[in-house]
Specification:
Layout: H1 9-20, H2 57-67, H3 74-77
Helix pairs in contact: 1-2
């Protein structure tokens, strides 16, 4: 969940994979993560397509990707508990 937007955990994990796979061979050509948006990825789950139309899409994707970090329990990743951070 990000604000009033809710997405399935499996879709968020797929988003994290897409964002983590955004690596180029030449480090000079890498796009900074703050400006990266996975909207051009052909495997982006369709739940995220409406987010791509928003100006704040890169920040939403970044927050969702952080929520899917492996060191968080699924309860915290789903924002079902308070005080996890």
């Amino acid at each position: 969940q990000d604000g009033d937007l809710k997405f399935p955990l499996e879709s968020v994990k797929k988003l994290k994979e897409l964002m983590g796979g955004n690596r180029h061979i030449n480090p000079r050509m890498m796009v900074p993560m703050a400006g990266y948006s996975p909207c051009q990825e052909k495997h982006l789950p369709e739940e995220f397509w409406p987010v791509c139309k928003r100006e704040d899409a890169p920040m939403i994707f970044r927050r969702l990707s952080l929520a899917a970090e492996d060191d968080l329990c699924e309860i915290c990743a789903n924002a079902a508990c308070a005080g996890c951070f």
